[in-house]
């Protein structure tokens, strides 16, 4: 289902962004594989009803992978058991890259890179328990030092079908330069597919493929405000202003369908990104922050993103 010979493009799991509406748009514009937002395995087990909405998928989302986080083997196993009850999920991914302190304190996310033995045990648990096609893992280059290439083979032996590597250590956060050469070392150290991640956009994706030799790319922040990036990469053609306006309008309607009136507030952050580089963006952002009506939001989107306005 994931054809790594075709160098697939993945949408990264992005907390607060890669929800059902964004994943639907990304898929429509050529994303090959979507991944849910990171979901705590504890939340799956102890707050089951509240997390079910996070795994809801669009009919377009095939293949679709759910990402979980955690460090307790028994809780991970129970979370997998819950996911096994749902059709339409093609894989389970273990997050070993999140650098957020509250996740690290639970010995989850990138903290697992400090305990490769436990990390591999968790992958084995998912692989042996899951009825899904894929077991995967998303890692960083290391916690403080770059050591991902040292555990790549062990992750494959533990049952990972592919590995996604963010080209920074946990210490590097989201601001350190991305080390694509280090991702290449991970690729060289294992026989399973490796997907490169970290600051990949329309301007550097070809260079990332060249440097890393990877089997696919995972695009994160570059998709926010540009969910059409997957089409641009595949077709080497930019969208026009009228297309952009229609996509933004569709995104807002998808948000309303998913969140109801709460979508108005949630969509503001997307409009902040969509408006970047357009004259009057600062004033537009301040204005939409005050909007509480879906109809007024539609009117302002129509007005601000009008192609004739952009030309003038």
Written account of the structure:
By secondary structure, the protein is of the alpha/beta class. It folds into 2 domains: 4-235, TIM Barrel (Alpha-Beta Barrel), CATH 3.20.20.70; 241-311, Non-ribosomal Peptide Synthetase Peptidyl Carrier Protein, Chain A, CATH 1.10.1200. Helix content is 45%, strand content 13%. It is built from 16 helices and 9 strands. The chain has helices spanning 20-28, 41-46, 48-51, 73-83, 101-104, 116-129, 148-158, 180-189, 205-212, 229-235, 241-259, 262-266, 268-274, 281-288, 294-304, 307-311; strands at residues 9-11, 33-35, 39-40, 64-69, 91-96, 134-140, 162-166, 194-197, 216-219. The chain has an 8-stranded parallel β-barrel with strand order 1-2-4-5-6-7-8-9, surrounded by 6 helices. Strand 8 (194-197), helix 9 (205-212) and strand 9 form a beta-alpha-beta unit. Helix 7 (148-158) packs parallel to helix 8 (180-189) and helix 11 packs antiparallel against helix 15 (294-304). The longest helix has 19 residues, at 241-259. The chain is globular and about 55 Å long. The chain starts with 8 loop residues before the first strand and ends with a helix. The model has no long low-confidence stretch (mean pLDDT 95).
């Amino acid at each position: 289902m994931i054809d790594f010979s075709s160098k697939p493009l993945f949408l990264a799991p992005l907390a607060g962004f890669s929800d059902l509406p964004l994943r639907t748009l990304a898929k429509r514009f050529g994303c090959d594989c979507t991944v849910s937002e990171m979901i705590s395995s504890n939340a799956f087990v102890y707050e089951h009803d509240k997390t079910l909405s996070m795994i809801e998928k669009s009919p377009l989302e095939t293949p679709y992978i759910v990402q979980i986080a955690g460090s307790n083997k028994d809780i991970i196993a129970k979370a997998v058991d819950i996911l096994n009850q749902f059709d339409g999920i093609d894989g389970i991914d273990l997050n070993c890259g999140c650098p957020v302190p509250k996740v690290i304190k639970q010995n989850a996310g990138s903290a697992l890179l400090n305990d490769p033995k436990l990390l591999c045990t968790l992958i084995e648990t998912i692989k042996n328990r899951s009825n899904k096609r894929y077991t995967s893992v998303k890692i960083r280059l290391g916690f403080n030092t770059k050591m991902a290439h040292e555990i790549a083979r062990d992750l494959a032996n533990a049952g990972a079908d592919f590995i996604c590597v963010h080209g920074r250590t946990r210490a590097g956060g989201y601001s350190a330069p991305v080390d694509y050469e280090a991702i290449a070392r991970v690729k060289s150290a294992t026989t399973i597919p490796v997907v490169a991640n970290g600051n990949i956009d329309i301007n550097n994706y070809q260079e990332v493929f060249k440097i890393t030799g990877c089997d696919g790319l995972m695009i994160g922040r570059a998709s926010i405000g540009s969910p059409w990036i997957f089409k641009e990469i595949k077709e080497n053609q930019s969208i026009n202003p009228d297309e952009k306006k229609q996509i933004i309008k569709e995104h807002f309607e998808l948000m309303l369908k998913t969140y109801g009136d709460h979508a108005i507030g949630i969509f503001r952050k997307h409009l902040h990104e969509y408006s970047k580089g357009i004259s009057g963006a600062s004033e537009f952002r301040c204005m939409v922050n005050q909007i509480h009506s879906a109809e007024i939001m539609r009117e302002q989107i129509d007005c601000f993103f009008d192609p004739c306005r952009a030309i003038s």
